[in-house]
Structure formats: structure tokens, C-alpha cells
Write a structure and sequence with these properties.
This protein is α/β, with parallel strands linked by helices and about 240 residues long. It has helices spanning about 15-20, 25-45, 65-90, 105-120, 135-150, 160-165, 210-225, and strands spanning about 5-10, 50-60, 95, 125-130, 175-180, 200. It has a six-stranded parallel beta sheet with strand order 3-4-2-1-5-6, with helices on both faces. The structure holds farnesyl diphosphate.
Length: about 240
């Protein structure tokens, strides 16, 4: 029996290397990676996970080649055209996290439509981070809070719970488990506030190789962990 795990976040790394190893362009890896988002969303929902938050494009990813960036910007349209109806039928709610106004207009429209069409659903929350960076998220929150203090809308005794209301993830619970694929062991500016007490797992498989079986293994490992949240275990 698996321990309850409400919120899983994943850094979907290794698409490029996976594609290269097969003699294919990096973009082919991203396409297979996008298909795997559907597979893993279904697996998450079946395992009783309520929130699945996936890192699709970071504020640092603009440094990649123009071809690769423009391909990733087109992926949401390809992805939702293929799978949106199925997601709606399954009751999933789509949330996009990040500074969307910096994305191409057509990408913004696809993402906003996906959120709008699924906003009344109560099943899995499938959160996709696009143009997201955690330091920037915290900075924007601090700026907004400062403005609210200046305008008399907030006072100075803000606590953690109050600050969370300024974050892009204000509607979601804290992350229980963070997984990174493809062997790298870094956080890469992802959900720094939200993973304060998360369990971390780094798996060797690249994102295209991250199957429901590997995912299940991660949840089994999570079940074995003793989460103390800074306290001590009851004897
Ligand atoms: C990291 O692998 C992956 C990305 C930067 C892009 C991830 C995007 C997807 C999986 C598809 C997004 C899906 C939707 C629905 C928009 P990498 O390219 O950094 O791999 P590498 O480390 O091998 O180069």
C-alpha cells in the first residue's frame, strides 16, 4: 500500500540526450517527451495523486537555439490538439504556471484555452510550467507584496502562509515528492519555496524512458521515507 502523496513535481530532463542517442534531432525527443506527459498524467491520476507539476520550459531555456525554442513553443498546440478531449473526459484540470505574457501570442492562446476549458474539472490538476523560474516567482511575489504594503492593502507582519498567496502556485498544496529524470542531481530554479519539505528522487532514466513502472518505483521509495518535517519520529 502506497503512502498518500498529494503533489508530485517532475523535472523532465534528458529529452535531447535521448534523441541524440537514437540519431534523431533534439526536437524529436521533446515530441516523445510531450506524449509521455499524457502517459504519466494518467498514471498519476490512477495512483491517487491530485497535483502533478511538470517543468516544460524554464526562464533559462530561452538560451537554447532558436529552432529548439520555437519548436517547444509549438508543442502545446500539438499536445492539446491530440489529448485535450481525453483530458476533459478524464476530468483533469489544466493549470499553466509561469510568465505567459512573454510567450508567443499563439502559444498563450492555446495555454489559456486549455485552462479555460478545464477550469470546472475536479480530477487531477495537471500543472505545466512554461517560462517559469522560481527565483523570479519569489521576486515578483516580493514586489507585489511591497506594493500592497505601500498602498495600505497589506501590513508588515506577513507570515509564510500569507506570502504563499503571492506565489504563482497559490492554489496548490506543497510538493510532497520531487523527481528529476536523466541522472542530474540539481533543482535548477524549480519550485524552491514549494519543495521546502519535499522528498527528492533522482532517477537515471531520461524523460522519454520514464514509464509508469519507473514512476511507481519512485512512489514505493517515497513510501519508505520517514517524513519528519523537522520534528522527531513517534516511537
Ligand atoms: C529537458 O530535456 C526538457 C525540456 C527543456 C523540455 C521539456 C518539454 C517537454 C517534455 C514537452 C513539454 C510538454 C508540453 C505539453 C508543452 P533537455 O532537452 O534539457 O535534455 P538534455 O539534458 O538531454 O539536453
Amino acid at each position: 500500500m502506497l503512502k498518500e502523496c498529494n503533489h508530485v513535481a517532475i523535472i523532465m530532463d534528458g529529452n535531447g540526450r535521448w534523441a541524440k542517442a537514437q540519431g534523431k534531432p533534439r526536437t524529436a525527443g521533446h515530441l516523445v517527451g510531450a506524449d509521455n506527459v499524457r502517459t504519466i498524467a494518467i498514471a498519476a491520476s490512477e495512483m491517487g495523486i491530485k497535483y502533478l507539476t511538470l517543468y516544460a520550459f524554464s526562464t533559462e531555456n530561452w538560451k537554447r537555439s532558436q529552432d529548439e525554442v520555437s519548436y517547444i513553443m509549438k508543442l502545446p498546440a500539438i499536445f492539446f490538439k491530440k489529448y485535450m478531449q481525453e483530458f476533459l473526459d478524464r476530468g483533469y484540470r489544466m493549470n499553466i504556471i509561469g510568465e505567459l505574457d512573454m510567450l508567443p501570442k499563439a502559444t498563450q492562446k492555446v495555454l489559456n484555452d486549455a485552462m479555460e476549458e478545464s477550469k470546472n474539472n475536479t480530477g487531477l490538476n495537471l500543472n505545466i510550467c512554461m517560462n517559469y523560474g522560481s527565483q523570479r516567482e519569489i521576486l515578483l511575489a516580493a514586489r507585489q507584496y511591497a506594493k500592497d504594503v505601500r498602498d495600505g492593502k497589506a501590513d508588515l507582519d506577513l507570515d509564510e502562509e500569507g506570502f504563499e498567496k503571492y506565489l504563482m502556485t497559490k492554489d496548490f498544496p506543497p510538493v510532497d515528492l520531487l523527481i528529476r529524470t536523466s541522472g542530474e542531481e540539481r533543482i535548477s530554479n524549480y519550485l524552491l519555496w514549494q519543495i521546502a519539505y519535499a522528498e527528492l528522487e533522482f532517477v537515471q532514466e531520461s524523460w522519454p524512458e520514464f514509464t509508469p513502472e519507473v514512476f511507481h518505483r519512485c512512489l514505493e521509495e517515497y513510501t519508505k521515507r520517514d517524513r519528519r518535517f523537522g520534528g522527531v519520529t513517534n516511537e
